[in-house]
Amino acid sequence: MGSLHPFSDASQASGKTQTLINPNELLDLFKCQQKFLNFFFQNLDLSQTLSFTQTLLNAKGTIFFTGVGKSGFVAQKISQTLVSLGIRSSFLSPLDAFHGDIGILSNSDLLVLFSKSGNTEELLKLVPCAKAKGVFLISITSSEGNLLASVCDLNVYLPLERELCPFDLAPVTSTAIQMVFGDTVAIALMGARNLTKDEYAANHPAGKIGKSLIFKVKDVMKKQEELPVCREGDLIMDQLVELTSKGCGCLLVIDDEYHLIGTFTDGDLRRTLKASGEGIFKFTVGEMCNRNPRTIGPDAMAVEAMQKMESPPSPVQFLPVVNPQNIVIDPPIEMEKHEKYMIPSFVWSFSPTYYL
């Protein structure tokens, strides 16, 4: 079911008056937000930021973040970013801290408190409890001369001209600069720790980053019992079940020593049928197969296989895996669907023991 066009007549049909956004007012809002963000960048105290970043870099224990409301959400996100970089970090809920969670703190830890006003009651109550645990306290605020800054070991002031909200109340600009500040510091820590691409990928094994930087072809090849294979002397019509039952859309054509001779696809089948009609009953797979298919080795990176599959002149649906002697090899499993072309993308393999 499709969605309604923003300017559909649905509201008119129901007798309701449609309310429209003034494009000029929308543009003005974005320009204002840009101006407020520029104010932050132009007035940020670099010395405070450097001290904060250096303190986090030299942390011996865990870096805890806390905050209330929208600032709490920002604190959680920044903590998660640090964790993804291999830095020990966690979010401490101010409410849960008073009901046992503060027990996780130790005198080697840091506690970073995000608060726009610096006068958040829950955080002010948390400070003496955290100090009793010997924790180093850092406040991140956007109000000068606030209570939180006066009781913490270190304070970073995030310059805020005003909120984008017409009442200067809804925390939209303040949370934006908190996020920009925290994420930028995270990347600075990433550089200072000399985090490599492989180390970063190791923390993201299930995502696209990990798949492209960790997995090799041999890690994502198709299982041998799922491989559609045949010999070049086999008649095309005798191999229709093999071609269609494996759900792969192709056949791997091999000789008696398991060398890859070529590939025969369902597209080749359609073209042969269109050109020869009933003559297709006499053709062998070897006569009509592609004898120069793209191939790849088992130790290549999975991302290299994907790039090879989508390279010109046109993308392909599968990629045979062969060793330097052009023998299809083991072990295999299926690759995930290719996102760009939305076609099944597979790496095929075959074990020499399969037919023995």
Give a verbal description of the structure:
This protein is an alpha/beta fold and 356 residues long. It has helices spanning 10-13, 23-43, 46-57, 70-84, 94-97, 121-132, 147-151, 173-192, 197-202, 208-213, 240-245, 266-276, 285-288, 302-309, and strands at residues 63-67, 89-91, 110-115, 136-141, 154-157, 229-231, 250-254, 260-265, 318-320, 346-348. Strands 2-1-3-4-5 form a 5-stranded parallel beta sheet, with helices on both faces. Strand 1, helix 4 and strand 2 form a beta-alpha-beta unit. Helix 3 packs across helix 8 (173-192) and helix 4 runs parallel beside helix 8 (173-192). It is elongated, with a radius of gyration of 31 Å. The chain starts with 9 loop residues before the first helix and ends in an 8-residue tail after the last strand. Mean pLDDT is 85; it is low at 331-356.
Provide tags for this entry.
356 residues, three-stranded mixed sheet, disordered C terminus, five-stranded parallel sheet, alpha/beta, 10 strands
Order of helices and strands: HHHEHEHEHEHEHHHEHEEHHHEE
**Number of E-state strands:** 10
The rounded distance between the terminal residues' Cα atoms is 52 Å
Estimate the strand proportion.
5-15%
Average pLDDT for all residues: 85
Given the structure, what is the number of helices?
14
Low-pLDDT runs: 331-356
User: What value does the Rg take, in angstroms?
Assistant: 31 Å
Biggest sheet strand order reads: 2-1-3-4-5
Gross geometry: elongated
Q: Helical residue percent?
A: 25-40%
Secondary-structure class: alpha/beta
Largest sheet: 5 strands, parallel
